[in-house]
Amino acid sequence: MKNKAALIFAIALGLLFQISCNTKIPTDLTKTSFIPVPVSVTATGNSFEVRESTIIFIQEELQQNGEYLANELNKIAGFSPEVITTDKLPANGIYLSLSEGVSDLGDEGYKLTIDKKLITISANKPAGCFNAIQTLLQTLPVKANLDETLEIATGVIRDFPEFGYRGAMLDVARHFFGVDDVKRYIDFLAAYKMNVLHLHLSDDQGWRIEIKSWPNLTTHGGSTQVGGGKGGFYSQEQYSEIVKYAQDRQIMIIPEIDMPGHTNAALASYAELNCDGKATELYTGTEVGFSTFCTDKEITYKFIDDVVRELAAITPGSYIHIGGDESHVTKEEDYIPFVNRVQKIVVSHGKKVVGWDEIANATLVENSTVQFWADVKNTTMGVKQNAKVIMSPASKAYLDMQYDSTSTFGLHWAGYIEVDAGYSWDPVTIVPGISKENILGIEAPLWSETVTNMDEIEYMVFPRLPGYAEIGWSASETRNWDEYKIRLAQHGKRFEANKIDFYRSALVPWE
Ligand code: TNX
Question: What is the whole-number distance in angstroms between the Cα of residue 254 and the centre of ligand 1?
Fold first, then answer.
């Protein structure tokens, strides 16, 4: 009997101890593992508690942000705070505002002030407010236990990005990924304040966007993929749904139609696009550089004009990507006038051109952007023509490169990219002779020859993506692998809670 009482006492004590450990209240904001690391974090030693009764007050223009935050808090805590529009600073709750006094923080910067009773977000634009919300969410668990109180350490964060372009690419042509997968990919980007998703919509193996004036592109050209699966495509309606989902998360979609090479899916769908007038067979292999549009047929340009017109009409972002890479079977004397003419088509539909670095061999029109992936000479040539550059060095930023020789998926033609190598480079010094003013920012492309489903996407993307986000957001002098890997390790439990199938690199001290 006495023993039993002692046992109960011991269990009770143990429980109490566990509860008090679980509910340890955070009071030092500087201890939070933010990625990307903010410009400045100051702690004030107290804490704010998020409760069911916490109200989100918003200025009118921030409706979207307010609803997003309420929805995210619902996912974490199982309750959805009320969102109320007001112009007056409230005494309690969370207040999202577009205010003066932060003009030095730019379009995407923000000030986040956490006091005992009130959290205030001040930004110049909704994009800044959205970024502040991501910072705030990183102070909370991804999913709270029922008995847990949601406490946030108090303090002040001032923050703004180093580069305006922080992107990732998804190749939906080699393997097709449906709308829900793309939305999940967008959520990954949003969580780390990335603001561009480049969709590689066409290649030799598949055409993935409905073009109403050329319907065979998708019915035939979209009907397979690498390895011979059934492929797929987005209707224009589905594409618009993706665009809207991205827009609500401050992410711009850049659609790519790769040409004049990487075009077998189109060439198989329409015989008249081939120089010999014969449609090619569909292709399910992984070779590159064997296909080309017929650059001296007029119908080719009528086709491109139709495609770009329809695509521009459903793309609110300012860019159309024209590919231009690895056109090994297009003669140089054909490639250059082709790119020159296609740039004009894009501009005539009100969009700016982006192309892989090869397009710098042509005469670039004003506002064209060159995406560096492999060739320093091309990129330098682009800058000499006043083009801006997006940095996607294959040996550093390609999400389809294997981590090491034991990786199950991925390629290694540009080398292995362990998590430290993916993190430790500077976009400004990667191409000699160009400077920061020439660079829009960075993009990490995921090519999908070897990647067939969401789990495999996640394995290649995590944990490298947060590192690319930090390279785009945080100044190079503030970045240091030994310090970063500790913060990254803390995000392991966030990946787990989000059911992200990530690569547990031995270089990161996961908990
Ligand atoms: C090169 S990068 C390509 C793609 C491949 C990729 C595989 C670039 C502009 N072209 O067609 O998918 O390598 O890593």
Answer: 17
Decide if pLDDT at 146 tops 90.
Answer: no
Span 278-313, pLDDT tens digits:
999 999 999 999 999 999 999 999 999 999 999 999
| SS3 labels along 214-266 | CCHHHHCCCCCCHHHCCCCCECHHHHHHHHHHHHCCCCEEEEEEEECCCCHHH
Q: Is 101 left (phi over 0), alpha (psi -120 to 50) or beta?
A: left
**CA 390 / ligand 1 centre spacing (Å):** 15
Q: Which two tokens stand for residue 201?
A: 């919509």
Cα–Cα distance, 110 to 128 (Å, whole number): 5
Beta bridge partners of 41: 157
CB 197 within 8 A of CB 189: yes
Confirm if 135 and 29 have CB atoms less than 8 A apart: no
Nearest Cα to Cα of residue 182 among 472, 464, 457:
457
pTM of the prediction? 0.95
Query: Residue 61 burial (CB < 10 Å; 0-12/13-18/19+)?
Result: middle
459 within ligand 1 shell (Cβ under 6 A): no
User: Cα 480 to the chain's mean position, in Å?
Assistant: 22
In the chain, the percentage of residues whose pLDDT exceeds 70 is 95
Domains of the chain in start order, with CATH, are: 24-159 (3.30.379.10), 165-476 (3.20.20.80)
- Ligand 1 proximity of 400 Cβ (cutoff 6 Å): yes
- Helices and strands of the chain, counted as H and E runs: 15, 17
Output the pLDDT for position 314.
Answer: 98
Q: Is the CB of residue 428 less than 8 Å from the CB of residue 475? A: no
By CB atoms closer than 10 A (0-12, 13-18, 19+), residue 408 is exposed
Give, for 334, the enclosing helix (H) or strand (E). Answer: helix 332-348
Residues 6+ apart with CB under 8 A from 241: 179
Q: State if residue 288 touches ligand 1 by the CB under 6 angstroms criterion.
A: yes
Residue owning tokens 């004590």: 13
Instruction: List residues with catalytic annotation.
Output: 326
How far is the centre of ligand 1, averaged over its atoms, from the C-alpha of 110 (Å)? 36
Taking alpha carbons only, the member of 116, 66, 71, 74 closest to residue 96 is 66
